Amino acid sequence: MKQKLILFDIDGTLLKGMSKIHFKSFSEAIRKVFKIDARPTDITHSGKTDTRIILEVLEKHGISRDKVLPRLKEIYKIMIDFYKKNVDLDTDIKPNGNVEKLLFILKKKGHILGLLTGNLEEIARTKIGKFDLNKYFDLGSFGEISENRTKLLENAIEQSKSKFKINLSKEDIFVVGDTRFDIESAKELGVKTIAVATGNYSIEELKKYNPDYLFKDFSDIDKIINVIDKN
């Protein structure tokens, strides 16, 4: 069986529920750095990277990119420190049904699993670490790398080449996500998309972006595994 690279989004895909502590980390950092009251819900945020959310929220509040970019690392640090300090209060999130079973089977088959998420790395690792999921992932591409999700995907593919000394074809790379941005970034690079309606997007909304494969959730993992193995 051919080895595949399977890249998973976190929020809405691996995990369900809203991470209130992650949301609060944005507000905390923006308040400390720019002295204003702002939050991710000030914009349409689903599927966007943390960097893009920061830039768009602050732009909406009249602060230009030129002023924000030099202070991104400062914002990241405050967000990460706040999240780690309060992670035990993040009680509204949990793994989607069958997610860990799917990860276990794919890993056992010898596929390469990676995280492809707009979360900052330390927040991402801490968030899924609550459920002991980090052990399944060989690599990851995270929100501080770029505001552009396609750049994150490029980075993940390069990591797989460097770490595993393999050059996978586009047919052997899958992005698993729950938003239009997961689908669009994968299509931009010509890799396979598996969309799941486990987040804020319905089946009907996801259909508009023409994913290669579309599932309501992870209830039929045999079908998902067959889709991956048959390519």
Features:
single chain; two-stranded antiparallel sheet; 2 domains; six-stranded parallel sheet; Rossmann fold; alpha/beta
Write the layout of secondary structure elements.
Blueprint: E1 5-8, E2 15-16, H1 20-34, H2 50-60, H3 65-68, H4 72-86, E3 94-95, H5 99-108, E4 112-116, H6 121-129, E5 139-141, H7 149-164, E6 173-177, H8 180-189, E7 192-196, H9 203-207, E8 213-215, H10 221-230
Parallel strand pairs: 1-4, 1-6, 4-5, 6-7, 7-8
Antiparallel strand pairs: 2-3
Helix pairs in contact: 1-4, 7-8
Report on the structure:
The protein is globular. The protein is of the alpha/beta class. The strands form 2 sheets. It has a 6-stranded parallel beta sheet, with helices on both faces. It has a two-stranded antiparallel sheet with strand order 2-3. It has helices at residues 20-34, 50-60, 65-68, 72-86, 99-108, 121-129, 149-164, 180-189, 203-207, 221-230; strands spanning 5-8, 15-16, 94-95, 112-116, 139-141, 173-177, 192-196, 213-215. β4 (112-116), α6 (121-129) and β5 (139-141) form a beta-alpha-beta unit. It folds into 2 domains: 5-17 and 94-230, Rossmann fold, CATH 3.40.50.1000; 20-89, DNA polymerase, domain 1 (Orthogonal Bundle), CATH 1.10.150. 45% of the residues lie in helices and 13% in strands.
